Amino acid sequence: MKWRNAGLGTLAMAIFAGAVSAQPVVQSKGNYIDKFRQLDESLPTANIYRNAAGQPGHAYWQQQVDYDIQVTLDESRRRLSGSETIRYENNSPDTLSYLWLQLDQNIFRPDSRASMSSDFSRSGGRSLPVESGARSEPARMSLSELRRMQFIEDTPMGYDLESVTDVAGNELSYTVVGTLLRLDLPAPLRSGEEVEFQIDFSFNIPEEDAVSARSGYEHFPEDEREGGNDIFVIAQWFPRLAAYTDYEGWTNKEFLGSGEFTLEFGDYDVEITVPDDHIVSATGVLQNPAEVLTATQQQRLESARDDERPVYIVTPEEALENEREGSSDTKTWRFEADNVRDFAWASSRKFIWDAKGFEQDSEEVPFVMAMSFFPKEGDPLWSDYSTEVVIHTMEVYNRFAFDYPYPVAQSVNGPVGGMEYPMITFNGPRTTLQDDGSRTYSLSEKQFLIGVVIHEIGHIYFPMTVNTDERQWTWMDEGLNSFLDAVAGLEWDPDIPWGNEPRNIVPYMVSTDQQPIMTQSDSVTRLGPNAYSKPATALRILRETVMGRELFDFAFREFAQRWKFKRPTPADFFRTMEDASGIDLDWFWRGWFYTTDHVDIALEQVYEMRLDTHDPDIDLNRQREAEANKPASTSALRNREEGMRPWVERNPDVRDFYDENDIYTVTNKERNEYQSFLDSLEPWEKATLERALEEDRHYYVLSFSNQGGLVMPLPLQLTYEDGSTERVDIPAEIWRRNAHQVSKLIVSDKALEEVVLDPEWEIADADIHNNYYPRRIIPSRVEAYKSSQSSRLVDRDIMQDIKTELNSDDEEE
After folding, report:
1. What is the pTM of this model?
2. What are the phi and psi torsion angles at 388 (to 5°)?
3. Based on the number of CB atoms within 10 Å of its own CB, is 166 exposed (0-12), middle (13-18) or buried (19 or more)?
4. Cβ contacts of 366 within 8 Å, gap of 6 or more
5. What is the spatial distance between Cα 717 and Cα 714, in angstroms, rounded to a whole number?
6. Which residue, among 343, 332, 323, has the nearest Cα to 230 in the 3D structure?
7. Distance (Å, rounded) from C-alpha 158 to C-alpha 205?
8. Bridge pairing between strands 418-421 and 424-427
9. 440-451 pLDDT tens trace
């Protein structure tokens, strides 16, 4: 840095008429914080498998696992029996002596690690801790938890493994470890080799409403058919290979419930045998439509390819007839799915089925059949919206990621509120049956259906295609997807209150139970805000405020394209977003993803300054005006009000020179000094000063303090005295040398009237009241209310209540 000791350099040091204290760089050992230090110290070292730019490295690999499965649904016993042949191809550079498989159904065993380690206070019960000196509340159990406990006691859960053999029928050695199975190979599996083996298995299907699972059955006892009907949504149902990765080896962390899974891609050939009158929706493409569909249904399915609106494949009337009759015969549906990481399906005689074709500009998959399966309990909501929303989701996500990669996209209504698998999603909203036989729904149910379909179909992109590890980092699929589903929701209907504004995450950000986003999935206490809302909000702020849409969208799409059908880690996402945008975002990842800081930036002061011209006729007159604008002495004013006249007024003969000339009176001595100053300036200095004097601009210094810990950009709205406004965006790098306090110079041709920090509430600032200068009155209200009555037993008026007559219905019982 070059310093000047005279001339305009000295003049610039005296430019301020207001007193502005400099903000020093904070460097003491106790409180120095570098919010902009590089994140590499926290990220895994780049290598040949995933490089420093966030790309798959030149030696990137992943395993291939193919499945041939035959499964039978025993509807009366609500039990599945299956046989699978698994082909495992070792593409890693390592030799494997054993394989790990996931047995997710074992989570329902009463002796599972998930069951034995469940916290009663977080699983439907209530048992509050006793603080010192406080009175404890008794433990309580909800009926939902009691129902779950009774179901698991009454129904043996988990896998029955009938056989585990090689293709020749020889038994293989294995060990079950909770929700995992270690298969000991008879010979080491070297790099480039493959092994094939078979497993016969069965298990009782859980009742989803009882155990709150990701799959199961839902019973409809009120249906006209004797015994009622069921909807079966079947997922995480067959023993399947755990992932073997370059960054962790075997991903064999036990399934505890929150952390879902990551799996290997492979090809599937699945035969599903169900009652003859069931309709089946599944991952993959139906291979035998002539065997399971009527000629009319096949024609409707063909017609749906080109129709403008969804076409019924199974009409509501046909579904109602199916659910009345029932059948003891069976039918086998066969599906094939290529390059998927899982397989799920649904089956019921209650299903209405509609479909609509979606043409996309893709050489790989130019046509997608969008379909929905739902019972009468979902109509008319589902027939109006579900399939259309499936297509809308693909249109939006295709722009941000890649063209939808599969030939089928399905939305199924069942007992699971929202869950995703390749090509198929389970979604929960229903309608309400009214006394007149009609079915209605609330705005919230409509919003729920549109939102959950967007979200779950979006999951087919993340993580079913961009294969993130949900058991480790829930945010990598839920957070990325929640960000995009908000984009798609606003593009569907911006008037629906989607609830995804940055201000909505503030209560979690300032709460005492906030955890870093990077917390492992099963350790997160509040999964919704931690893994969904906070990362989605972070990405929205990154797009709209930090990076801008053009750079963000390019970088985000680059990440999706790089890792399509591959397995990225958080480091790959962080590095790609920086590599593709050219913006250093380490400060952002560290603050939002690794800490529990929140945003609270205060606009502390605004200083108004004028150029110190050194011209005594200008500067001294300004000082006189400033002095005149100061409040007069209160005592002098009250003396005047009481009629008291000063001595100098009553005796004018005592007045002298200084009564006519104040301290701001200019003399020729000052004028000569000013002329000498001008003569000493170099030509460029004189020109600079003359221009500044001619423009006579307004200089303001805005002082900010960081009270929440998260450094952020400073979006400002400036309002001038003439009523005009201006938006000024100050990048986050202003905090790079001092994360506590910063100041910004604003130069304007017009006088400022108001400054507002974060006027659009776009940076999740926790306290907007310190964002205004001058400060605004905080709106509040006076409420009239009565204190609620006590719920203590001792406070009941039993003498009066005992007179209450028993309702007639209770007497009959």
Report:
1. 0.89
2. -65, -40
3. middle
4. 359, 360
5. 10
6. 323
7. 9
8. antiparallel
9. 999 889 999 999
